[in-house]
Every structure is written in C-alpha cells, then in structure tokens.
C-alpha cells in the first residue's frame, strides 16, 4: 500500500512512515485497511473477497448498526447485451453467462472481460490518501480474460472517500476500456446484497424509481423470484427518475429493534442501464451502469453515495446536494465530484 499524506511530487520514506504511524484514522494489516472515524468504521480487503467495503465492516457509530450483506460497492465483470451461446465452448468457464434462469432472468447478456473481480482477483493493492478532513482509498484492477475477438487489459479504478463528520462515503467506479461495444456496462452491487432469514435483518426496501412511495415490505422477499420478475428497472423501458436511490431499513435480528436506512445513491440517474432487487436466498441488489456505445481508448464511470440515514427525507436532501455527477477526483489537498 502507498500512503499519501501531503501534496508535492515526492515524499521521503521517513515522512511516510512517521505520518502513517501518526494517523490514528487508519489501521493496516496484511489483509485489510481499516478506516476509523468518529461517525463510522469501514474495512477494505486486500485479499479474498475484494473491492468496495468489506461485509459487515461498515459501522454506524450513532446507532451501532452494520451493513447486512456481502459488502458495499462490490464489482464484477465488464459486459454487454447479447448471448455467448455461440462460443461458450471457447470461453473461460468463469466468463460463461447463463440466462433464462431464476438467478439471471431472461435477458441475454455476455461478458466482454473478466474475471469477476470480487471473487476472482484474489488480491488488490489499495492506496490510502489521508487528507485533513477525509480519508480516501483508491484501488484498481486490470482485467485478464476476455471473450473471443476481444482484448484483455481494460482497467477498473475505484475511489472511496470517507469525509469527516458524515455517516456515508462517496465512491466512484470507472472503466478505461480497451474494447469497443455498442452498449458496454459494468456490473456491481449497489449498495450491496442483504442477508436475511424471512426479513430478520431489514423491515423494508426503498426504491426511488418505484411508483408510489417506493416502499417494499420485507415480506416480498420471503420467496425467491427472478431479477426481471418484479422490482426491476430498465432504462428505455422505464422513465429515468429524478433520483436513483436504493436502500434497506435495518433492524436488529435478535430484538427486532428498528435501525437506520442503508442507502446506495447513483448520482447521475441516466447512467444506470438496469438495476434489480430480487430474492435468491438473499436480496440481490445488482446495478449495471453505462450501457451506451463506447470505443476502445474511452472510459465511463459512475459516482455514488453509500451510507446510513435516519429517513428517506434525509436521503433525498443528501442526494440533491451531490446530484448530477459521475466521477470523483481525490488529492491529498481535497476531493471533488466531477461530471
């Protein structure tokens, strides 16, 4: 891990070592980076199941609740519409995308490049940027498998910014593509999946693009159903919403006590090509962004807010504060969202 703590072209190893030890907001081990702030804690894994914030490590110090899934802002493959059936025998097994089943639904899709980063990258080398009023983590991965006729080597970059005094983090995921596609997209978990047994960890889900108040009771997720069966958003078929927020209302599985909302907000609603919220043993909250023509050498990205909120009204207020952005830039002197 590289540890950046001040502006300038280069820093001496002595300064790096001194500052790393002095900054109590960050703890590093061989396998993870822990972020320790007054309002929240989070861990970023270096090994194993990587990308985003590690499962159950995201702690809201105000309420004592944690995320209830497999991690937040977790990243998969680069994909596009269409079937891989004609060349499946030539694909790396991990790239094969089966559809027409309860897990993936009926829509034909195929991987352009892989592997699925979260499960198959195995190891990442994240960097910490410790600013005066924030801590950020950056990480990247170069895809190493590809479909026939496609190149390997597209690069995924992720930035996670944890601002002082907030119960949420700001993130971006970006693809620098080495292939061209009529509708390339990146698949990720946003905010993340929900582990539960008959709704014991959450009481309801909120989807800002759903008609009415957007509220779905936990009872709707007691039985499995496919991604395109219900609660599915598809750009083009559905109207682009004013806000793109997906959240679940936490509750204590032991006592039933109500907790905060955990929300994932995509700050440019028009960049989401498809998103679903379906039950497959857990509530699967997949989101795909991009889905537009891209040429080799170009890039595309999305920006998110992920965190804890006391109400839907609070989510809306925070969303509107940051809305309209699709990128994120961070330096030791500060961070900013970009178009």
Summarize the structure.
Helices cover 7% and strands 44% of the residues.
Description of the molecule:
The chain has helices spanning 13-22, 117-120, 312-322, and strands at 3-4, 26-28, 32-36, 40-45, 53-54, 59-60, 71-72, 74-81, 109-114, 127-130, 134-142, 145-146, 155-163, 168-176, 181-189, 202-207, 215-217, 232-234, 244-251, 258-266, 272-279, 283-294, 299-309, 327-331, 334-338. The chain is mainly beta and 339 residues long. The strands form 5 sheets. Strands 1-10-11-13-14-23-20-19-16-17 form a 10-stranded mixed β-sheet, with helices on one face. Strands 12-9-8-15-22-21-18 form a 7-stranded antiparallel β-sheet. A 4-stranded antiparallel β-sheet has the order 2-3-4-6, with no helix packed on it. A hairpin with a 4-residue loop joins strand 13 (155-163) and strand 14 (168-176).
DSSP strand count: 25
Helix content estimate: under 10%
> Distance between termini?
28 Å
CATH class: Mainly Beta
Topology:
Elements: E1 3-4, H1 13-22, E2 26-28, E3 32-36, E4 40-45, E5 53-54, E6 59-60, E7 71-72, E8 74-81, E9 109-114, H2 117-120, E10 127-130, E11 134-142, E12 145-146, E13 155-163, E14 168-176, E15 181-189, E16 202-207, E17 215-217, E18 232-234, E19 244-251, E20 258-266, E21 272-279, E22 283-294, E23 299-309, H3 312-322, E24 327-331, E25 334-338
Parallel strand pairs: 1-10
Antiparallel strand pairs: 2-3, 3-4, 4-6, 5-7, 8-9, 8-15, 9-12, 10-11, 11-13, 13-14, 14-23, 15-22, 16-17, 16-19, 18-21, 19-20, 20-23, 21-22, 24-25
């Amino acid at each position: 891990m590289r540890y950046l703590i001040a502006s300038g072209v280069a820093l001496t190893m002595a300064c790096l070592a001194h500052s790393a030890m002095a900054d109590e907001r960050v703890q590093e081990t061989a396998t993870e980076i822990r972020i320790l702030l007054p309002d929240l804690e989070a861990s970023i894994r270096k090994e194993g199941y990587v990308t985003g914030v590690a499962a159950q490590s995201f702690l809201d110090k105000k309420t004592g609740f944690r995320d209830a899934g497999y991690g937040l802002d977790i990243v998969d493959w680069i994909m596009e519409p269409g079937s891989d059936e004609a060349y499946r025998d030539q694909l790396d097994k991990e790239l094969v995308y089966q559809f027409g089943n309860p897990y993936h639904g009926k829509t034909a899709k195929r991987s352009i490049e892989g592997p699925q980063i979260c499960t198959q990258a195995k190891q990442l080398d994240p960097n910490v940027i410790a600013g005066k009023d924030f801590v950020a983590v950056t990480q990247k991965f170069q895809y190493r498998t590809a479909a026939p006729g496609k190149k390997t080597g597209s690069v995924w970059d992720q930035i996670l910014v944890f601002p002082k005094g907030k119960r949420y983090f700001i993130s971006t995921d970006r693809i620098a593509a080495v292939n061209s596609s009529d509708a390339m997209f990146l698949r990720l978990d946003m905010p993340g999946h929900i582990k539960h047994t008959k709704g014991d960890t959450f009481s309801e889900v909120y989807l800002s693009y759903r008609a009415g108040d957007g509220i779905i009771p936990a009872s709707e997720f007691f039985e499995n159903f496919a991604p395109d069966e219900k609660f599915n958003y598809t750009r083009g078929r559905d109207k682009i919403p004013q806000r793109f927020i997906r959240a679940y209302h936490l509750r204590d599985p032991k006592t039933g006590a109500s907790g905060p909302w955990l929300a994932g907000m995509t700050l440019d609603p028009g960049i989401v090509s498809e998103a679903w919220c379906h039950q497959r043993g857990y509530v699967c909250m997949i989101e795909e962004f991009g889905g537009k023509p891209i040429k080799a050498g170009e890039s595309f990205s999305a920006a998110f807010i992920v965190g804890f909120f006391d109400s839907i009204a609070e989510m809306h207020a925070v969303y509107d504060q940051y809305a309209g952005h699709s990128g994120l830039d961070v330096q030791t002197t500060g961070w900013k969202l970009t178009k």
